[in-house]
Amino acid sequence: xxxxxxxxxxxxxxxxxxxxxxxxxxxxxxxxxxxxxxxxxxxxxxxxxxxxxxxxxxxxxxxxxxxxxxxxxxxxxxxxxxxxxxxxxxxxxxxxxxxxxxxxxxxxxxxxxxxxxxxxxxxxxxxxxxxxxxxxxxxxxxxxxxxxxxxxxxxxxxxxxxxxxxxxxxxxxxxxxxxxxxxxxxxxxxxxxxx
Length: 195
Ligand code: FES
Hints:
The protein has about 200 residues and is of the alpha+beta class. The radius of gyration is 28 Å and the shape is elongated. The protein has helices at about 1-30, 40-65; strands spanning about 75-80, 95, 100-105, 110-115, 135, 145, 150, 160-165, 170-180. FE2/S2 (inorganic) cluster (FES) binds near residues 116 and 119.
């Protein structure tokens, strides 16, 4: 759908440029010397057409660059549907596009960045909830508890956090562009949530 919109934008932009240049070309025609300069007119019109086509392609490219790409994906704010919010001590919800786990502990919600702070592998949830290796990185064995606190392995710190916001209507949003590092879990890191 997005590609179709981009293509239409490029075509419309190109058509507009071509129309403007065609009008400009017409204004240049006529006058007493017009009949004698047919060849020059042909060359000029061909040049204008080529220019219009080139500008159309550039317009399409510009549209591609300016179009927002990150809606709902990593780097932007992601809304977590009610149905995906885990119960307290439930299996964390994983958002693949946003690259985070939403953990619900006794203090509230935590969004853990899935990227291992060691060398960047994706850390899977393996559970169970009370295990010191509830998150276990398969690459070099770093281990984290359910709050993402490092409990072993070569990782230099605990799993990073993303900012969680709970709005008045209980809508949960995770800002995947706001990532912070921390040494270990503290209660203040959790965003209170009441279902
Ligand atoms: S990348 Fe996770 S332990 Fe090395």
